[in-house]
Every structure is written in structure tokens, then in C-alpha cells.
Design brief:
single chain, mainly beta, 9-stranded mixed β-barrel, 3-stranded mixed β-sheet, 2 helices, 11% helix
């Protein structure tokens, strides 16, 4: 084959590839937003069937103030069970939000109810409300250390607003249920205070991960105030050739009210 023919075939190949890329159109860009320092107000309610919340050591803030129980919550001669199996149910709700921007280069676009073609900058604002109801089986060691699983149903409601300086503005809001799996670790050195770490993942149309660590001041046997640090991750993949994928990662302080019965 002559050199001229080879060159001609190469030019034809390049032209075909360019035509295919043009027919395919610009590829959607993912909306990947990270925001730190975002507060997460929340609340939880739990009911303990086994062994029962009334079997726990006394020594809440109310007990200490009224001197109905010592600060340690248990007399030295009192025997605590080495291991106690626990079972309860818990419901929780949390609210967070975040914002950021995503550069859209030339030849790419954001597909989000409408289409924002590059070059542009997409400003993204997210409002999230989530909650779950779950069974919480586990074990408790000497009423000090607890390891409990979370098995239930989570619901996530996320509203996303995308806009650009050029006048593009689109809003989408979806509610997504899913199966929830998680783990909670608690250390109660004295009945007045709980130190805890909790993580939960919800799997459905989107995958969310909620990680939290903090401390709880037990005002009474049934009421506590907690505060700590929380990180929330949201990921929804639309699939190849579909609108832009959504990925959000927000973190910051959390606080709330806990009721236990």
C-alpha cells in the first residue's frame, strides 16, 4: 500500500472519530460538592425493651443535684452484670445544608432538569432532611460499654439548586427511601455522661453515609443533650449517558435532644 493511500486512510479514520464524538455530544459533568463547618441540628428517640432503661445506673444531673444518687451512680458494693443483652428501637431525624461551585469546562455540560453547557461555573446549594427508624440490638458490659447494631429503614429528602451567573437556574427535590445498616458504640464512665460514636449507611436510589462522634449530658434518666462532630456523604449515580451524577460531602458540628424510655 502506497504512502498516499495510508495517509488518506488515516485522515478518514480521524474524521470518523470526530464525527462520532460530535454525534455523542458533550458529556455530563458530575456535581461533586464539599462543604465544611456546616451545623447539623438533630434529635433521636429510643425505647429500650431489654433489659429496660430503668435498670441503668442512677446518677443523672437531676439525681446529682437532688442528691438522690451519688455522682458515680452506683455504690462500690453494688454488683453490675458483666454482660447484658440489649434490644430497643430508635428513631432519628437530622437537617443539614451546604453549597459550593463546580467548574464546567468547554465541551462538557451539567444535565439537571435543564442543560448548562460549558464553559461556565455551576453554583450548587443543597438542603437535606433525613431520618430513620431502626431496631437496635446489642450487648452492654457492666453498664459502661455498649455495642449496638442499627437495622432499619432510612428516608432521605434532598433539594438541589443549580444556577450560573448567565441566568441558568434549576431546582430538583426528591425523597428516597432505603435500607439502613449501622453501628453505635457508647462509653458511659459515669451515668452523667455518655461518649459515643455512630455510623449508618442507607442504600437505595442513592447511597448516604452518616458518621457522628460526640458526648451526651444526661439531664435525667430519660432526657439528654448531645453535641459532637458529624460528616454526611450523599452519592447518586444516574448511569452512563444519563444526567449528571450527584455527590455531596458535608461536615461540621452537630447537636440535639435525646429521649430514652
Amino acid at each position: 500500500m502506497s504512502a498516499r493511500c495510508s495517509s488518506l486512510l488515516a485522515l478518514v479514520g480521524v474524521a470518523l472519530v470526530s464525527m462520532a464524538a460530535t454525534c455523542e455530544g458533550p458529556r455530563p459533568i458530575d456535581l461533586d460538592i464539599q462543604d465544611r463547618g456546616r451545623p447539623t441540628p438533630s434529635g433521636r428517640v429510643a425505647y429500650e425493651f431489654l433489659p429496660g432503661n430503668d435498670t441503668r445506673r442512677r446518677g443523672s444531673l437531676l439525681d446529682v443535684v437532688t442528691r438522690s444518687a451519688p455522682f458515680e451512680g452506683v455504690a462500690p458494693e453494688t454488683e453490675l452484670p458483666e454482660v447484658a443483652f440489649t434490644f430497643g428501637v430508635v428513631g432519628e431525624v437530622a437537617v443539614t445544608n451546604g453549597h459550593g461551585s463546580e467548574p464546567v469546562p468547554a465541551g462538557r455540560e451539567v444535565e439537571f432538569d435543564g442543560t448548562l453547557a460549558g464553559p461556565a461555573t455551576a453554583g450548587v446549594a443543597v438542603d437535606n432532611v433525613r431520618g430513620f427508624a431502626a431496631a437496635r440490638p446489642g450487648i452492654r458490659l457492666r453498664d459502661m460499654f455498649s455495642v449496638e447494631a442499627l437495622l432499619g429503614i432510612g428516608v432521605d429528602r434532598t433539594r438541589v439548586r443549580v444556577q450560573s451567573p448567565g441566568g441558568f437556574f434549576q431546582t430538583s427535590e426528591e425523597t428516597r427511601p432505603g435500607a439502613l445498616f449501622g453501628l453505635r458504640l457508647t462509653f458511659r464512665p459515669v451515668p452523667l455522661l455518655d461518649l459515643y460514636a455512630q455510623g449508618a449507611t442507607t442504600v437505595g436510589e442513592a447511597i448516604t453515609t452518616d458518621l457522628e462522634a460526640g458526648g451526651q449530658l444526661n439531664l435525667t434518666r430519660n432526657v439528654g443533650l448531645y453535641a459532637g462532630y458529624r460528616r454526611f456523604k450523599f452519592a447518586e449515580e444516574k448511569g452512563r449517558g444519563s444526567p449528571s451524577d450527584l455527590e455531596f460531602d458535608f461536615a461540621g458540628p452537630t447537636f440535639g435532644l435525646s429521649l430514652t424510655f
